[in-house]
Amino acid sequence: MNKIETRAASPDAAVIVVGGGPVGMGLAIELGQRGIRCIVVERYAQPQPIPKGQNLTQRTLEHFHFWGAEQQLRAARTIPPEYGIGGLTAYGTLLGPYSYDWLQRDLVRPYYYTANERLPQYATEAVLRARAAELPSVETLYGWDAESVQQDDAGVTVTVRERKGEGRRVLRAAYAVGCDGARSTVREQAAIPQTRTDHDRVMVLLVFRSRQLHELLQRYPGKSYYNVLQPQLQGYWKFLGRVDLGNTWFFHAPVPAGTTADNFDFKAFLHEAVGAEFEVEFEHIGFWDLRFAIADRYRAGRLFIAGDAAHSHPPYGGYGVNSGLEDARNLGWKLAATLQGWGGEALLDSYDAERRPVFVSTIDDFIARSIAEDRAFLESHDPARDRAGFEAAWQARAEGAVGEVHAFEPNYEGSPVVSPGKGACSAKGSHRFEARAGHHLAPAVLAGGANVYEALGSGFTLLALGADESGVQAFVEAAARLEMPLTVVQAPAQDEAQRYAARWVLVRPDQFVAWASDDAGVTPEAARRVLSLARGRH
Crossing angle for the helix pair 368-380 and 387-407, nearest 10 degrees? Predict the structure, then answer.
């Protein structure tokens, strides 16, 4: 008979996180470092050895920096740093005559405090689990499933069951967050509907070993992932990537409907994509449906969803895990602010208002657009028919790949907690050093040699760059009255700090700019108004 442990009177935690993949663990660390008690319920006792979610952006490494796990993550990488982690797009086959550099994230490195990284998701999860274990405010239940999630006016109740045992617990908290994947229990029980766009494509995921493939691809030093365009795919990709250097690989590609692990020649399929034969030892053959899905809202009362529970898309361009980790940063400090008493309901509502439009834009402006543009290119250009025309168009694509990296700049220009909240929240923007409301703060070396990122506080930070002392005092007093955590960084407006083009920059706990101004002075009323809007309580 199952044992049920019930705790009804006092809460077990402030937040219950259902799902302990990268997003759930990142959220737990964000909360735990802020002193918020949370419980992570994760069905798997150990990270699952499927090498997905490998490309981590510079922005994501900023998260790991502030979570105290950046160096541990870099130490866990499976490809030596000196080799490189670049990408490549090829036409026809990988060994054919046409290829160009793809997804060159190094181009936007100056706009972030940290460099990007690449490693399998299970290695990332192991680093996050180790960091969470260091935080006394984080409790983890590995090997447990969430059976039911309910909410009332006072909080949430989550019933969990041990997967390989008889234990059951009824957990109580103020909030719960579903980070439990595309088939989210939290989303379903919160009755949050999804909008899905099905591309009617069955995709295969192969994980295999091949030393010969490494030798074949030595012509592309420093490349770790490879995208193959073929006319018959109609814009969909064959996508190959390294898991480590020289031995283990993964491969995504569309396959005919009805394909199984036993009725298809996957070795020949790989040989055709590469353009040569090589030995293959399969470790995993799995299938998934190519579709886009986004929840119609990310909040239902005291229940929230994040990561794949809120949005999912094909693994094109490495947007998925990075988007989910940004969800965790965005929601984590807002939940902490509300639980600590200085954040308001409008701040919690801004999670949906900021993150959901960014994902819609990621689909429309980057992933779906890329599929459509690839299809149009393949329909219009063929080197066998018009070599000169094909090569000119191919060169134009190579130049366009540079623009895509610069254009992917998620921002919250239309946020209700950003001043001025004009425009719209979007994944499409431009990388600039200027401090702009709703945009990520670019790094800058201040007078004295320290980077501004070394001076940011865990709450809000006011950069006063050659600013009026009375204005600084107005912000300090307003923050004290509003009980908001505020770090003040005063520095002369010189050297790299001049790039912000502002005397005043209010930086949020997630390193986005809440407000920027070049006004000479700030009145007490103006300071109170700016801070009140930023905390979601007027």
Answer: 170
CA 228, 231, 234, 237: dihedral to nearest 10 degrees?
-10
> Residue 473: how many CA atoms within 13 Å on its side-chain side?
3
End-to-end CA distance of the chain: 53
* DSSP 8-state secondary structure symbol assigned to residue 280: -
Q: Tens of pLDDT along 103-116?
A: 788 899 999 999 99
What is the spatial distance between Cα 475 and Cα 467, in angstroms, rounded to a whole number? 12
pLDDT at 4 over 70: no
pLDDT band at 538 (very low <50, low <70, confident <90, very high): confident
Task: Reduce the DSSP state of residue 485 to 3 states and report it.
Answer: coil
pTM comes to 0.95
User: What's the whole-number mean pLDDT along residues 260-270?
Assistant: 97
Q: In the beta sheet, which residues pair with residue 249?
A: 208, 242
- For residue 282, the cross-strand partners are 208
Q: For the chain, what is the largest distance between any 2 Cα atoms, rounded to a whole number of angstroms? A: 75
Task: Quote the tokens at residue 376.
Answer: 């149009």
Q: How many residues would you count in the chain? A: 538
* Buried/exposed 499-534: b ≥16 CB within 10 Å, e otherwise: ebbbbbbbbbbbbbbbbbbeeeebeeebbbbbbbbb
For residues 29 and 135, is the Cβ–Cβ distance under 8 A? yes
- Picking from 428, 194, 173, the residue whose alpha carbon sits closest to that of residue 291 is 194
What does the DSSP assignment read for 298-336?
SEETTEEE-GGGTEE--SSTT-HHHHHHHHHHHHHHHHH
The string of DSSP codes covering 395-437 is HHHHHHHHHHHHHEEEEETT-TTSBS--S-EEEE----SS--T
Cβ neighbours around 286 below 10 Å, total: 11
